[in-house]
């Protein structure tokens, strides 16, 4: 694939690189982006990327819409929400996905070691910490509770940043917490017990996040978008195939303890967005009241 | 050295009534003129705004009614926020004035505490939230504490300054007349520091509102700040703008309340100041 | 040196106050501070103005200085009606502490008006030095006003006025707040400056001794609303000294005369029906005991009560 | 975001005797006491986690924080962050001060303008700057511009209000003096208005400096603009508790330094002012 | 009424100052303000203390009031050594503006010490009314101090002291900052209160006329470091009035006597070698011209220079 960069369009000019800004949260999920940058996969496509830290999905959407980023990383629920508010954003390629294997995923619901809660169904009516209300974590947690036969209607959600969750669970300030890596591992190291792998259980092989851009960028800079997608896909593939390098690259942009980094479960970085999972998610959002009208995800997927 | 006072009742001029009406009109114009003009400008400029994040003012105002007045939000969100704000603010007043009087009264205590206080004050409150959560969980207690942790500094430090500046002659007067204990604390120390304390209150109030919002970014499930952030996250931009508007309005109303309180509590001070400014020459 | 205000050399009056009236109009009160003042001051005169507290002395002076617009009547200085602060006039205020700029040294304070006059630097420095020397402060140009005693500060204000080389110098109770000794020194200073520089001086005071000691003429104002009650020519010798002059028989006579007028002034103003107004005022209004309350003055003799 | 010590405008403390050496006391002794206070604070922080009162996983003892701090000091990335924060702080402060001075002087010297803007200022001032975060992100994204917007907004009011007070506080006698010597408008502004307002302005700057720093860090924390706040965020989301606390300590120390600097500036510029000179003459 | 300080009825001295010495120790200097003062005051006496500026009058008074601990020696009041402000003592400070609580009305100011004394409300109100009436301020109880003139404020301070019903009343140059007329009124007020209430009064002033007019005895202090130079018994009739008394021959004699002592005081202190110290001070420290600088006083006559 290295030589195939010759189908360059005039946009590049005299061999100049396209400078592209990508907004991303400094978490494990975006390891391929950093890895791809380090490996020179973007440069191969005549793209020079600058990764700009964001603090969450809505900032990323805002940044993309205001033109501050060309592309950004965000979870699909945020994208669907934005779309339902008529914000013209569209996914470019996959961001990350659940491993699809309950028992070995990069996030789940943990409880204190001596908790009476044994499984997802036991979470019904409990106080659960999540990072963002009305987003992917609570939607999938609800789904997995329902799948386990529990009642998901009267759960008390508590918004809490992921870093605070292990402490909150261990000190029993909440009954359970939906955490992702590295805090998933940290919590388990401290003795917390996993009762649900909601990403894996709710929807099979669920796509969690995507790299996205505005419709305008996608249509007007089709070539650039294409090259970005190519480089990104290569990076995803490489990261999926070289987990150790992915773990190493974490040290360049996060502060995760190397000992922890070695133990964490990495998310899946598949080649394609699982369209079906996204549609299921969108439907769940309607039934959970996150959005008012049914969304056809074809509108936001590439 | 004679004291002049300008409060001199004189004959009313015949045109007084006309003058009063004109003055009231002018006052109204002065108070409302610019705000109305600015709103009008905003209205016109945003009238056919295509920018997603800057909806037309007309739309925002229309939504305001729906979002805040015709829903349960006033009770479910605004009220809890205000309650937490007032709890935090109230505690900050008690703590700030109490500690301030203590620290201000004793030079050694002040020297001992000052660097630590300066240090703690300089730590941005949002950074402290995780620490506070360790100790206070994340219920209302935590949020009240967040508000408190920010509000207490302006009050504390202003009180310290005010207490330090208590007039020596007054202090001696109290000693001579055997005014001690609680009477001294109230009639001399607190009263004499009260102008500074109120300055502190005013600063603390604006900090408090900000922290009310910030505290609701963590572990909240209701509140004005929480709503605004939810609106923002779910891209309900018009609703978000109504929240900002409401926040500004609340801030303004609370500031007015405080001003009224100040006017009552410190009328002696404004009188004194005015006297000194106008014609007290000593 | 005569009571008419026309200076003997026939140059005509330098300052002409004509039917001056000033009414302060506030929100819902209006005070007629000055009812009708007419007098003139010849070039080179030293005229003292006395009157009870609240008589409107300050008001008069501020009108002359162009800081206050008269309600009616006019102030004519050197042939032109005063509209704003006229050039060539300097004012020394009672509140020396507040009329010096605390952020400037003595030197800078004195120099500032000269800069505004666009004098060359050398000339400015010369003027500053001379005037500071004249008031006996030649050695402290680098000090800040607040590093000086009250008397010294007042002398700086005087030096500033002198350096400005005014044709006419207005002083509003300039020595009211300095102690007796300093005050005597400053009085002598004013007279010697006046004699040396030939400047016209209007000196407002409520101290009768001071007025008689200093002036060529003493204008006695009635209490508010104010009119001129008397214009006493002071025929003391030009060379005066604190001890000799003040203990002379003529001084005592003049003082008694002025005192009599001031006594009269307290009970007589432009508006006879206004007379008792001062007593019935509620708390918070002009206090009744600022030194001229009618209730305690009748029984005092000129020789005693007039001196501080 | 206004947690700040406020000695109300120095000149506003008129009733306070100027020459008090009140509390300055022996300098050396005070500094020693202060150090002792700080040491006590650190000792408490060391003991509390060690005693098991809170888990050292969440509140590490001082020694571990110190270790992390030492490590940080060796990292280029840390210094970049400090530089970023300071740049945002300084630029924001500079803009706010410049704006505040210009607007303050214009409003302060033209009574009509002042009258007609008063209500608007009162309305805008209490609007918490966090409410502007969405707007900032929209306009400038998560970069310096956003930080600047928030910093400038918060700091501007501090400066403006102080300047307004200051300009109004011109002594009537001094003003009359200026008039009678025929000083021109410019000279009056330069030599009368400016020095009168300067103590107020410096108080405003001191307040604004503290607020600006807090806001710069908060903005970085919430918006994700580069700087210390963002580093804290990074440490937090990476579970690096020690570095997080080390960074928090750095922000506190920065705040102390900024305050000290501002006080020093005040002392240097206002050598003539009673509040400063009072400390020298016994 | 005698110079020994033992009151004629043999009740023994109310106040005994024994070998009082006070050294101020500052950062890197120490000032011996009072070297050795011994005197006593009988119950019901009215003793005036005069001395040049900086003599240590305020220091003495603050030691007596228990506000300052003497370096050595002691102050004995009613048989007990003074440790802190003794009950039954009231002090009127010079700084009237600063000794009243600006946030309290006149009424509240006067009432506060009575509340502290736990008097019943009715009695308090009665005392407040009576004392305000006594100082002629019966009509302004609801005013704030800053709404009053300086003289009125000082009268409020006096009323507060009177209402407190002290055995002994200390006053530190209480009238230094009020104008001549008000001052005369307040002097008469003090004498009439003293006569009516039988309180013991120690009155500090630097005005010789005032001391002679007011006191039964005048204590003359030397300049710093301070000793008692003279103790003059004032044998004027008990009924005094501003005009008659001040113009009497005996008054002039006594004034001359005290003045002579004060003149001597300026050049003589507990430490003769200290004499020239006052002149060599830099600008910014105690100003050199506060009315008693040695350089200008020699050539003035007692009758003139001594009066304020
Ligand atoms: N700005 C003002 N507004 C209203 N009334 C005023 C004002 N200034 C002075 N007056 C009134 O005008 C009258 C004259 O005041 P003015 O200050 O001229 O008297 P004065 O002779 O200078 O008194 P003093 O000897 O006390 O200085 C007084 O009754 C005073 O109350
Ligand atoms: N707190 C102090 N610290 C050091 N020296 C002091 C202090 N207070 C007074 N002194 C010095 O003690 C001496 C006596 O001062 P004091 O105030 O008692 O004089 P005084 O007789 O009351 O003077 P005045 O008539 O000016 O009020 C002076 O030399 C003064 O400088
Ligand atoms: Mg006047
Ligand atoms: Mg004294």
From TrEMBL, chain B:
Q: Where do transmembrane segments lie in this chain? A: 21-45, 81-107, 127-156, 201-220, 240-261
Per UniProt, subcellular location reads as: Cell membrane
Major subcellular site: membrane
What superkingdom does the record give? Bacteria
Q: Which keywords annotate this record?
A: Cell membrane, Membrane, Transmembrane, Transmembrane helix, Transport
Q: How does it sit in the membrane?
A: Multi-pass membrane protein
Q: Which residues form a coiled coil?
A: none
Family statement: Belongs to the binding-protein-dependent transport system permease family.
Protein name (database record): ABC transporter permease subunit
According to its UniProt entry, this protein's organism is Plantactinospora alkalitolerans
From TrEMBL, chains C, E:
Respond yes or no to whether keyword ATP-binding is given for this record.
yes
For the region Disordered, what residue ranges are annotated? 262-308
Mind telling me which residue stretches traverse the membrane in this protein? none
The protein's UniProt keywords, in alphabetical order, are:
ATP-binding, Nucleotide-binding, Transport
Q: Which InterPro entries match?
A: AAA+_ATPase, ABC_transporter-like_ATP-bd, ABC_transporter-like_CS, ABC_transporter_ATP-bind, P-loop_NTPase
Q: What does the record give under GO molecular function?
A: ATP binding
Q: Which SUPFAM superfamilies match?
A: P-loop containing nucleoside triphosphate hydrolases
Identify the domain of life: Bacteria
Q: Which SMART domains match?
A: AAA
Coiled coil residues, start to end: none
Q: PANTHER family attached here?
A: ALIPHATIC SULFONATES IMPORT ATP-BINDING PROTEIN SSUB, TAURINE IMPORT ATP-BINDING PROTEIN-RELATED
Protein name in UniProt: ABC transporter ATP-binding protein
TrEMBL record, chain D:
The answer, when asked if Chaperone is one of the entry's keywords, is no
Q: Where is the signal peptide?
A: none
How this chain sits in the membrane, per its record, is: Multi-pass membrane protein
Q: Fetch the InterPro entries from UniProt.
A: MetI-like, MetI-like_sf
Task: Keywords in alphabetical order, please.
Answer: Cell membrane, Membrane, Transmembrane, Transmembrane helix, Transport
Bias regions of kind Pro residues — which residues?
1-12
The UniProt annotation puts the region (Disordered) at 1-23
Record's keyword annotation contains Glycoprotein = no
Q: Which Gene3D superfamilies match?
A: MetI-like
Its subcellular locations are: Cell membrane
Q: Which protein family is named in the record?
A: Belongs to the binding-protein-dependent transport system permease family.
Designated name of the protein: ABC transporter permease
